[in-house]
Amino acid sequence: MKKLRYIVVFFLSVSSTWLSGQVLYDVHRLLLGETLHYKAKWGFLTIGSATTKSERKLYKIGQNLCCKIQLEGTTNGLARLFYLNDRWMSYIDIQNLTTLKSYRKIREGKYKLDELTYFNLEQKKAEIWTLNYQTKKFQFRKVYKTPLNIRDVVAGFMIIRLVDFSKYNKGEHFVIDGFYEDTGYKIDVTMCGMEYTKTDRGKVLCYKVKPSVPKNKVFQDVNAVDVWINSSKPYQIVCIKARLILGNLWIEQTW
């Protein structure tokens, strides 16, 4: 169950949780009122699905206008033997794409967690609150130090679509710093060029990028993941392929 959770989190944050000022991205690509659907396949079996949704309405947190984005992933079919139904929700500043508040609801087998995180960008810290299931109230748990301009998993998933890959040549790369819970990591992203990818709606011309994978017992090696992003508006993630120790995993967009 722990390995399955690691895979899910990595795919959702493949763009990482914050981008340095050297990365070229276009905030005007931000699209509100959008819902996207994905399916997860392990070999020939469909083992899960995921949905991302951004609301049209903007919310105000302090003096900041934020968009609200939700992401949900669940197992199905034979994979229900490894039951997973996770939901993330984040309020993201529309000016600098930093996360101000996030919520995650984790249901994996017998394990469950409801967690609120408040991000203080000036003090570079994240304040964690967890739900007490007996009192039905959130209780303060811990404060973590965070990198500058912190972004959570949901913001990371969104930002990969905002990177202007047309400015990068084949073979060029950039380094991204990430933060999940209390762990920091670095991902080297390489631009592999453009190629057509088969989808349910025919072939789509995509940017292909390869993010490095932190060393672990899940993926075959550090170069085990490939990501294809539609080269045309609205620059959606079309599919992700990962070579795992126990076979290949595909995340594909569905219509």
Instruction: Report the average pLDDT across residues.
Output: 81
Cα Rg: 18 Å
Strand order of the biggest β-sheet: 8-7-6-5-4-3-2-1-14-13-12-11-10-9
* Residue share in β-strands: over 45%
What structural class do the secondary elements suggest? mainly beta
Runs with pLDDT <50, length 5+?
11-21
Helical residues, percent: under 10%
Tally of DSSP helical segments = 2
Number of strands: 14
Distance between the termini: 29 Å
Encode the helix/strand succession as letters.
HEEEEEEEEHEEEEEE
Number of domains: 1
Give a brief description.
This protein has helices at residues 2-12, 153-159, and strands at 35-42, 45-61, 64-75, 85-93, 99-108, 111-120, 125-132, 137-145, 173-180, 183-199, 202-211, 225-230, 237-244, 247-254. With 255 residues, the protein is mainly beta.
Can you describe what's shown?
- The protein is mainly beta.
- It has one domain (2-254).
- The chain is built from two helices and 14 strands.
- The chain has helices at 2-12, 153-159; strands spanning 35-42, 45-61, 64-75, 85-93, 99-108, 111-120, 125-132, 137-145, 173-180, 183-199, 202-211, 225-230, 237-244, 247-254.
- A 14-stranded antiparallel beta sheet has the order 8-7-6-5-4-3-2-1-14-13-12-11-10-9, covered by helices on one side.
- Strand 6 (111-120) and strand 7 (125-132) form a beta hairpin.
- The longest helix has 11 residues, at 2-12.
- The protein is globular and about 50 Å long.
- It starts with a helix and ends with a strand.
